Automatic annotation (TrEMBL):
The keyword Lyase applies. Keywords: Cobalamin biosynthesis, Lyase, Pyridoxal phosphate. This is threonine-phosphate decarboxylase. GO terms for biological process: cobalamin biosynthetic process. Residues 25-348 form the Aminotransferase class I/classII large domain. It comes from Caldibacillus thermoamylovorans. Pathway: Cofactor biosynthesis; adenosylcobalamin biosynthesis. Decarboxylates L-threonine-O-3-phosphate to yield (R)-1-amino-2-propanol O-2-phosphate, the precursor for the linkage between the nucleotide loop and the corrin ring in cobalamin. Its cofactor is pyridoxal 5'-phosphate.
Length: 361
């Protein structure tokens, strides 16, 4: 089956599954803030419109400076990208032909870009609780130039605490290996501890961020990377001129003012996550203890979730399949946390499934 490689655009998923798309569907496959974009983006949209008659600043100086100030860095340690996806792709080019390890299951673009750039790729798998066995990783990490780690991890939603990352970073440092931590969902974590202060101590640390998820702006395309100024410069040399458009640059600055909205989002997501998990427990579904706005779920009575997946699609519920996540292929389904109303609809459909398929567990 030719499954879509990412969530969102559900019509591709229905086509691949050979299921007619119901008139009403609820998309749980893209992990975007359920509260939608901050109101201020709509209010200021006319100002952003002015930008379309100019070429954008190719150095994105204003947004870079704002981000650097916010994070306590020099602006030369920050690069803005056309989404986190462009940053990942630039890192892939920078790593051309190198030996790269990926902690799996994880976001598929790391492998994709490393493959295109002829890296030799190896994998390290998290354990069944979603944790990293650090001593085991240390043994496996021989002769690698770079290690990709997604934190919080997509698709598991598990957050690796700073202490764990510090241990891995120290190991990488001793082994002369770059540690690339993708923090696309960092701002959904309640007890997030910043890794940014480690950047000045560890020049082998690279942090990727996305503004897509928290600010619900996947169509705008905005992300950034923080790293040693030399690495930033190398990526900048590869980036196409005016890669990040002027609207995205302005909208990004506006988003940085939205501290209250970020807090409100975290609160809402936590409340909904706890409510959903209470219900899943009651109806005997398995799930991993996510710290963010999405989670992995399965019916424990079946190893492969395809029957459950098809049932949901027919009911208009669109989860993210996991066929292209190494290590869990098809054994789990991933769901975004959506609005209260949408989550209620999901729970109703789950109960309907459970009524038909009484778990033997
Ligand atoms: C872990 C992770 N990193 C990066 C990205 C890329 O995000 P964007 O290019 O929209 O900023 C995604 C998108 O799904 C993601 O899940």
């Amino acid at each position: 089956m030719n499954w879509p490689t990412h969530g969102s655009n559900p019509h591709y998923l229905y086509k691949a599954a050979g299921i007619r798309q119901p008139a009403q569907i609820y998309d749980f496959s893209a992990n975007i803030n359920p509260l939608g974009p901050p109101k201020s983006l709509r209010e200021d949209w006319d100002d952003f419109f002015q930008e379309i008659i100019y070429y954008p600043d190719p150095k994105a100086t204003s947004l870079r400076t704002r981000l650097a100030e916010q994070e306590g860095l020099h602006k030369d340690q920050v690069i803005i990208g056309n989404g986190g996806a462009e940053i990942i792709s630039l890192i892939g080019k920078w790593l051309t032909g190198k030996r790269v390890m990926i902690i799996e299951p994880s976001f598929s673009e790391y492998e994709q870009t490393c493959r295109v750039n002829e890296c030799s790729i190896s994998y390290f798998f998290i354990d069944h609780n979603g944790k990293i066995d650090v001593p085991h990783l240390s043994e496996a990490l021989t002769d690698q130039d770079a290690l990709f780690l997604c934190n919080p991890n997509n698709p598991t939603g598990i957050y690796f605490e700073k202490q764990v990352i510090e241990q891995i970073l120290t190991i990488c440092s001793e082994k002369k290996c770059y540690l690339i931590v993708d923090e696309a969902f960092y701002d959904f974590v309640d007890a997030y501890q910043s890794l940014v202060p480690l950047l000045n101590q560890f020049p082998n640390l690279i942090l990727i961020r996305s503004m897509t998820k928290m600010y619900a702006i996947p169509g705008v395309r905005l992300g950034y990377m923080m790293a040693d100024a030399e690495i930033v410069q190398s990526l900048q040399n590869q980036q196409s001129h005016w890669s990040v458009n002027g609207i995205a640059l302005k909208a990004g600055e506006r988003c940085l003012d939205e501290k209250h909205y970020v807090e409100q989002t975290r609160l809402f997501v936590r409340k909904e996550r706890e409510r959903l998990f209470r219900n899943f427990r009651k109806h005997r579904f398995d799930f991993l203890p996510s710290a963010v706005n999405f989670y992995l779920l399965r019916d424990p009575s079946m190893e492969d979730q395809s029957t459950f997946f098809q049932f949901l699609l027919k009911e208009g519920i669109v989860p993210r399949h996991t066929y292209n996540f190494p290590g869990i292929e098809g054994k789990w389904l991933r769901f975004a946390i959506r609005s209260e109303k949408e989550n209620d609809i999901l729970l109703e459909v789950m109960e309907k499934w459970r009524a038909i398929h009484q778990s033997s567990l």
